[in-house]
Amino acid sequence: xxxxxxxxxxxxxxxxxxxxxxxxxxxxxxxxxxxxxxxxxxxxxxxxxxxxxxxxxxxxxxxxxxxxxxxxxxxxxxxxxxxxxxxxxxxxxxxxxxxxxxxxxxxxxxxxxxxxxxxxxxxxxxxxxxxxxxxxxxxxxxxxxxxxxxxxxxxxxxxxxxxxxxxxxxxxxxxxxxxxxxxxxxxxxxxxxxxxxxxxxxxxxxxxxxxxxxxxxxxxxxxxxxxxxxxxxxxxxxxxxxxxxxxxxxxxxxxxxxxxxxxxxxxxxxxxxxxxxx
Amino acid sequence: xxxxxxxxxxxxxxxxxxxxxxxxxxxxxxxxxxxxxxxxxxxxxxxxxxxxxxxxxxxxxxxxxxxxxxxxxxxxxxxxxxxxxxxxxxxxxxxxxxxxxxxxxxxxxxxxxxxxxxxxxxxxxxxxxxxxxxxxxxxxxxxxxxxxxxxxxxxxxxxxxxxxxxxxxxxxxxxxxxxxxxxxxxxxxxxxxxxxxxxxxxxxxxxxxxxxxxxxxxxxxxxxxxxxxxxxxxxxxxxxxxxxxxxxxxxxxxxxxxxxxxxxxxxxxxxxxxxxxxxxxxxxxxxxxxxxxxxxxxxxxxxxxxxxxxxxxxxxxxxxxxxxxxxxxxxxxxxxxxxxxxxxxxxxxxxxxxxxxxxxxxxxxxxxxxxxxxxxxxxxxxxxxxxxxxxxxxxxxxxxxxxxxxxxxxxxxxxxxxxxxxxxxxxxxxxxxxxxxxxxxxxxxxxxxxxxxxxxxxxxxxxxxxxx
Lengths: 278, 468
Hints:
heterodimer, A: alpha/beta, Elongation Factor Tu (Ef-tu), domain 3, Rossmann fold, 7-stranded antiparallel beta sheet, 7-stranded mixed beta sheet, B: alpha/beta, 5-stranded parallel beta sheet, 18 helices, 16 strands, globular
């Protein structure tokens, strides 16, 4: 059981939670994730570790409310206990001094981009962060990213804040402006990551993406999270979650993410916001 | 013995079971267990051999004639405790051990008649003890002050935990999942091994003083080296062979194609068969195909039937004779209406416009020369491709070594398949103080073989700790 210390809404449907997990806080590295179960009957869902506080023995997670489990999780409060917090899982981000790095975050993916950007900066890289969302109200972590980036560019699809357009458009402009970019990290919705890779491929910029397939055990046992990278099948939980974006089959990732669409809808309909009503 | 007067033969007592038509619609246990009367009749068949060959067939040296004699005296609880002297998990072994190739294979009665139903009697006494609520704890020796870390709470880990704590050592078991039991919890379905039984066996160990820490994946976060740094005097690795194996053929990543590990973990550990009461979903295919001929294949195909499949088929590249599954499991599957397609191997999967599997292109096989395993090698018949329509596939062709421990433990010798090299008699690895046993050493085998390896390792660790 893991005690919830703090909870706050970063936007209408994105929640930040600080939970007790001293062993995880002590050993986790950027790019790693935890698996959470809200209660004994719950699903196991993977969530990136956004930040940790070793002294307090806590880790920070950020999630978007999309289905029953995340709705249930968002309904929990400080003082409540999570049934399971397992981690750190996955391979850490490969951090080196690359030179100039660009971290691209879209939507709730900004929460995943944050620890990567922070670790890159600590390793002595120049960090340019490009973060975006559909509209101003749901753009998260602007201040946090701003504080650790040498340059921060924000974008919204509707132009309500920052540059009007997609983060991939901003990245394209940056490349076109002749700025030297040594490596790009992209995290966000699958179509966003795909387009970012399409932008960096002709420019020959190595691009790392963080994938979010469906997982069950998340320890390399079940194969639910298999993704195609190059000509190989990889398990995102133990071989990833970060991969060379230019090699990833995003179409396969998209179809596999939809595998339980019907069941997810059914669970949500039955649930109707009564976390302990089962 | 030849001179003894011929006694009237008592037939081996059959096991009462749920009717096939009924049980294929529920997840309740299939064999119902002996009644007391049946157990007494079956126990009376035992010849009490002075030289009991049956014990030679038991990887954990259970005193078989001894416990059967106690059954005849109606001392069922004593019988259970006698077994528990060498086997911590009798109600599990009574259910899932392949007795026909172990103890019962060597039973003298089996030469001319059917062997004593040792497994069924073991199950009877263990269930008797548990349901009577009379599970007392054996006296424990004084603490040695030595601490052992056991990695993995499956059959090997639970066995060694029980053995070491009874030798006075302090034992902590680290389990990656949220529930202890390993394959007993995530792999073997409720209808073959009710989870309440696994919980009871685990609870017994906890009452003995074993500390079980769930949600701890050693090798991520904490490593084996960290465990030594924290003051553990020895480490036992019983992490199983948990990595899924696929065939690497086109279309294998289509939706609706599961590894057996995933399919069974969803159903058993996550209780997806009770969705939406439990949150984890599982595909309910109507025409389900399961690849492979082992016990895991039988578990998968019978799960699919219970989840509402109209047609559930085993596709196996050899023939029935070569299937590694227990006869009893194959028989149960047949009774429940599972179809078998032998000498067949898939070569490609075909999907629909939503990326979901809709068919499997297969090729016919024929048996050629024997291979390393002594079984005749299946070879494809050229030009014999044909299509099997299917909307869900479970790939149950074996499992591999999970690389997390091997790749994060310096100095640990690994063989070319990724399994840990360990001494067969002691479980000692190339690292002093690190022992290993079960599937992570042998590759996927049985619950009882893992338990046997754990018993040997327990003796070796005990000696190691007493020397140190």
